[in-house]
Design brief:
With about 220 residues, this protein is an alpha/beta fold. It is built from twelve helices and seven strands. The protein has a single domain (about 5-220), classed as P-loop containing nucleotide triphosphate hydrolases (Rossmann fold). A five-stranded parallel β-sheet has the order 2-5-1-6-7, with helices on both faces. Strands 3-4 form a two-stranded antiparallel ribbon. The structure holds 2'-deoxycytidine-5'-monophosphate.
């Protein structure tokens, strides 16, 4: 029987648009490796803040980037980032301090290029670990990281609804401010992507819209 193709699925969208829950569910349904690239930028932000480096200190950022090795730990279906051999606890990468600074660090070209090849290498990690594919979420996945992805989705949700979701999670997040800093990347990843407006949809409904064409591609 012919082996199913290895698929790369890119999911971009603004802050709190539902990318993580959607990607995690897809990774379970299709046995894909899940790479949450927002968590990579968050981990790097936490590491830079631990070292006392602020986004305005470009020389400090560059020095820290060359000092930190970046590797991956596969936990279940999740491709976690390790910095200098360690993962950073979720509570720290989701903290108000990291959330407040991450978009500013992510806007620095040196920070983005430090993670470029790393993110692309997750496709090989997924193959090595015998996953059926890779689902990667972020802001520039379909435009910069995997422009030739098999599927490119853009998740949209009304900003008021997104702010409400974050509040419900008990998180302080300036969703609109982060989107402003990420705007150019969001606009680029929107081009040519299949847009899904999840404002009034349940998670299951969003997942269904994405899973249907993937299942059709995987069908013998
Ligand atoms: O998905 P998230 O909200 O956890 O992402 C945190 C920040 O990381 C977001 O404000 C912008 C940045 N980011 C990015 O610039 N590019 C990506 N591919 C993913 C995240």
């Amino acid at each position: 029987m012919p082996r199913s193709p290895f698929l790369i699925v890119a999911i971009d969208g603004g802050a709190a648009s539902g990318k993580s829950s959607t990607s995690r569910t897809l990774s379970e349904r299709f046995h894909f490796l899940h790479a949450d690239t927002g968590s990579y930028y968050r981990a790097l932000t936490a590491e830079l803040l631990r070292r006392g480096v602020m986004p305005t200190d470009l020389p400090g950022v560059k020095t820290a980037l060359t000092a930190v090795t970046v590797t991956t730990r596969v936990t279940g279906r999740n491709a976690e980032i390790e910095l200098a051999g360690h993962t950073i606890p979720d509570a720290e990468i989701r903290s108000a301090e990291v959330t407040a600074h991450v978009a500013s660090f992510a806007a620095i070209p040196e920070v983005r290029s430090a993670l470029l090849d790393y993110q692309r290498s997750q496709a090989d990690t997924a193959r090595r670990h015998d996953f059926n594919g890779l689902v990667m979420e972020g802001r520039d996945i379909g435009s910069k990281i995997f422009p030739d992805a098999d599927f490119r989705f853009f998740l949209f949700a009304d900003p008021v609804e997104r702010a409400r979701r974050r509040e419900q999670q008990g998180l302080h997040d300036q969703v609109a401010r982060r989107d402003t800093l990420d705007r150019q990347r969001l606009e680029e990843s929107l081009q040519g992507a299949t847009v899904i407006d999840g404002t009034h949809l349940t998670l299951a409904e969003v997942v269904d819209k994405i899973a249907t064409p993937i299942a059709a591609r995987l069908a013998p």
